[in-house]
């Protein structure tokens, strides 16, 4: 985990970390100064008769010519309060650097993980579970900065303060310093032995339980109709309840472990002060009162530091799984820019597949081996074949969602590459069997990818006419501004397909791809959609249409049909 921890942080943040480390050091010094300011008050309370023996206080008393001891005490106390207030203001200002660093890194990691998952392509997305990817993007990055990086910074600050306090205690009274060492070292060692292995295991197990819960909830609502009709909800709830019970159980264990630092340090303090009290009683009580007070103040400040260090170490162990997940995602790479590209590919002649080969990573045989074909501009081409022959895979290759393992796809003689694939995708439209519908307004769904304030409503109205959606829009309470539900939950199959067609037309696409767009529709709706597609082909002779279909009726109006075997 150590090497991965540093690897996750990009170079620009590593450089900022140097400044943050400096602020942590200064904060530790300021906190030490705040603690040291209590010493004069202790001397005034516990050793007031011997102020003259303290060179610092006697110099202040004589230099400022105080008239009475009471006046001197008031001034010293006010000065101490003022210095402590100033110290805390400075500490708060310095903490802003650490806070900004940590949450800027969280923003970077979460966005970078989101981009990384997107850039891995359709194959990766299909192999993964969307609920797990969602949790990783939204939760794991936060767990890393809040549960690993922030405790690291806290531990660094507290260790520095601890060393300063202990060094001063050692200089003032070696006996008290050795006693503190004898008391707290066993407590820390015992805590380490008790929880060292448990926390990492608990953290990993809870992450798995949380993933399971997220997956079950997502599947329940995504497949609500099937779950309900199949009577599967009780079984899914049982799985959810098991994961929830596991989460609650692990959280209880972690909460219990979280109490241990306080218990160990308080017991250590009680033992240390009792031991010192016996030493004071057996010695000269008058001479030992100040020593006892100094030890008490130091110990009371040592306890929060030690407790913070132990709790921080616990948090790091508990959230260590986040380091592994982020390290696997390749977040050490440079932050890729996400820019809107409106440039289009100029398509005027032919889509050509030359000796195209493709094989999935986990497959033993290729899906395509030296496939060659041409699709000319203005054609309406049908593609058919038995289930599993690779029709949709072929579409995904032409759409640029998969990359060929050999051969290539050429548009007007120019090969599609990672550099120009976005331009090609800007020139095409795609209507799948299950058209993606976002939980947005109808207008935003048709103009998908456009900000709401940049949508050309006149163009939306034109494509609504072409896609025969006029009556549907008229039936909506807010027309184009009506929200149509997550995944189009309030739409019929035919309406979804027409929205997909309208979306493609809004782009002014040069090529329209229909992937089994009517296979799940009833006969009448299928005929209506086919008629709409045919009308588009007849009205715009430059429009190229490529259709995948099982039913021959969906391919009747195609200029030619390609059969995959």
What is the level-2 CATH architecture name of the largest domain?
Up-down Bundle
Indicate the radius of gyration in whole angstroms.
35 Å
Order of helices and strands: HHHHHHHHHHHHEEEHEEHEHHHHEHEE
Q: How would the global form be characterised?
A: elongated
Measured as a percent range, the helix fraction is 55-70%
What fraction strand? 5-15%
- CATH classification, class level of the largest domain: Mainly Alpha
Would you kindly provide a written description of the structure presented here, covering whatever features stand out?
By secondary structure, this protein is of the alpha/beta class. It folds into two domains: 2-328, ABC transporter transmembrane region fold; 350-563, Rossmann fold (3-Layer(aba) Sandwich). It is built from 19 helices and nine strands. The protein has helices at residues 2-8, 11-36, 38-46, 55-63, 69-119, 121-127, 130-172, 174-222, 224-229, 233-282, 285-318, 321-328, 391-398, 421-425, 442-446, 457-466, 470-475, 493-506, 523-539; strands at 350-358, 368-376, 380-384, 406-411, 414-415, 428-431, 511-515, 544-548, 560-563. Strands 6-7-8-3-9 form a five-stranded parallel beta sheet, sandwiched between helices. Strands 2-1-4-5 form a four-stranded antiparallel beta sheet, covered by helices on one side. Strand 4 (406-411) and strand 5 (414-415) form a beta hairpin. The mean pLDDT is 75.
What would the keywords be for this entry?
565 residues, alpha/beta, ABC transporter transmembrane region fold, Rossmann fold, 2 domains, 5-stranded parallel β-sheet, 4-stranded antiparallel β-sheet, 64% helix
């Amino acid at each position: 985990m150590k090497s991965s921890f540093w690897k996750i942080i990009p170079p620009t943040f590593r450089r900022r970390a140097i400044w943050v480390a400096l602020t942590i050091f200064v904060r530790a010094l300021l906190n030490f100064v705040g603690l040291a300011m209590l010493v004069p008050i202790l001397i005034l309370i516990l050793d007031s008769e011997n102020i003259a023996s303290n060179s610092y206080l006697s110099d202040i008393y004589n230099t400022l010519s105080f008239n009475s001891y009471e006046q001197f005490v008031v001034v010293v106390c006010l000065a101490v309060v003022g210095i402590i207030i100033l110290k805390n203001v400075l500490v708060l200002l310095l903490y802003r650097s650490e806070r900004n660093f940590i949450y800027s890194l969280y923003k970077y990691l979460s966005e970078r993980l989101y981009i990384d998952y997107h850039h891995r392509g359709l194959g990766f997305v299909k192999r993964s579970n969307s609920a797990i990817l969602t949790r990783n993007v939204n939760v794991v990055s936060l767990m890393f900065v809040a549960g690993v990086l922030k405790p690291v910074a806290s531990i660094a600050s507290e260790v520095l303060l601890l060393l300063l306090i202990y060094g001063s205690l050692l200089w003032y009274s070696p006996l008290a310093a050795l006693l503190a060492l004898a008391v707290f070292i066993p407590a820390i060692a015992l805590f380490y032995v008790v929880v060292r292995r448990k926390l990492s295991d608990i953290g990993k197990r809870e992450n798995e339980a949380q993933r399971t819960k997220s997956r079950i909830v997502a599947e329940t609502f995504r497949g609500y109709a099937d779950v309900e009709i199949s009577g599967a909800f009780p079984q899914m709830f049982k799985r959810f309840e098991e994961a929830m019970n596991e989460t609650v159980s692990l959280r209880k264990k972690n909460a219990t472990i979280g109490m241990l630092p306080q218990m160990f340090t308080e017991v250590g303090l009680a033992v240390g002060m009792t031991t010192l009290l016996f030493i004071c009683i057996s010695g000269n009580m008058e001479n030992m009162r100040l020593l006892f007070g100094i030890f008490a103040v130091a110990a009371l400040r040592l306890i929060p530091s030690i407790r913070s260090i132990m709790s921080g170490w616990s948090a790091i162990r508990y959230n260590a799984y986040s380091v592994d997940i982020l390290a696997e995602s390749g977040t050490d790479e440079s932050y890729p820019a996400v820019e809107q590209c409106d440039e289009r590919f100029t398509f005027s002649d032919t889509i050509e597949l030359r000796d195209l080969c493709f094989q999935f990573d986990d497959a033993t045989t290729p899906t395509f081996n030296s496939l060659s074909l041409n699709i000319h501009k203005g054609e309406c081409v049908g593609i058919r074949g038995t289930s599993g022959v690779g029709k949709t895979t072929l579409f995904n290759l032409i759409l640029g969602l998969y990359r060929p393992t050999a051969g290539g796809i050429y548009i007007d003689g120019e090969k599609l590459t990672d550099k120009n694939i976005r331009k090609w995708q800007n020139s095409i439209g795609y209507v799948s069997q299950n058209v993606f519908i976002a939980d947005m307004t109808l207008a935003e769904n048709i103009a998908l990818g456009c900000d709401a304030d940049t949508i050309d409503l006149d163009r939306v109205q034109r494509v609504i006419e072409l896609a025969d959606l006029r009556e549907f829009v008229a039936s909506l309470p807010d027309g184009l501004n009506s929200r149509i539900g997550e995944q189009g939950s309030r739409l019929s199959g035919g309406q979804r397909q027409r929205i997909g067609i309208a979306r493609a037309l809004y782009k002014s696409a040069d090529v329209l791809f229909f992937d089994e767009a009517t296979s799940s529709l009833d006969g009448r709706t299928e005929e209506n959609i086919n008629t709409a597609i045919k009308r588009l082909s007849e009205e715009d002779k430059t429009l190229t249409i490529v259709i995948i279909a099982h039913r021959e009726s969906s391919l009747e109006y195609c200029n030619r049909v390609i059969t995959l075997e």
